[in-house]
Each structure stands twice: as C-alpha cells, then as structure tokens.
What we know:
Number of domains: 1
Strand content: over 45%
CATH class: Mainly Beta
Largest sheet: 6 strands, antiparallel
Radius of gyration: 13 Å
Distance between the termini: 28 Å
CATH topology: Jelly Rolls
Amino acid sequence: MHIIEGAGAWTAPREGANxxxxxxxxxxxxxxxxxxxxxxLDNQSPHTEDEIYVVTAGRAxxxxxxxxxxxxxxxxxxxxxxEEHRFDDVTEDLTLLxxxxxxxxxxxxRSADPG
Length: 115
C-alpha cells in the first residue's frame, strides 16, 4: 500500500504556465496532479497512454475533435491514448487528478511534463 500525499491538490503554477506533478509511478500506471490557473491555456498534445482525469477543483470545458463538455468538481473524464484533447475556458483555477495507464511516457520513453 502507498498513500499518495498531495494528489489532486491545487499548486499555484509559475506565472504564464500550468503545473504538472507526478506523485506515483509504477510500470502499469502513473498518478499526478495537473493545475491550470483561471484564464490559463492548456497546450497539451495527445498522449500515447490512456488517461483518466478527476476534477478536484475549478471549472472549465474539455474539448476533443468529437465533443465538448463542461467539467467541475467530481467530473471524471476518460481520454483514450492518441485522442486530441485540451481544457478550454478555464473560469476557476482547475485542479485535476490524472491517472495514466500504462505509466506516462512508457510507450515513448518520455517521463517529463505531459502538458
């Protein structure tokens, strides 16, 4: 067992940036927190891993090529590997608990910022 301290908690990003912190990494999954300040831009690229977002704070819209949805605390979003997606119209500081499976970057050799 491992308690993941700080997962899903807001961390103020440096000015003009978003913040990604990986808090757990094992071969078959990784867990981290992604924070986007109100009015911020999400410029992430599609990932090679499946991904689940759990909104722990804030409000925004998630946009994919096929749909758009409003998200708020308690929203759970599944994004399959390779699907383009971004958070748009961030009206309140957005905090996302993120689970990648397998671990982020394990299919490409990357392990840095997924944003």
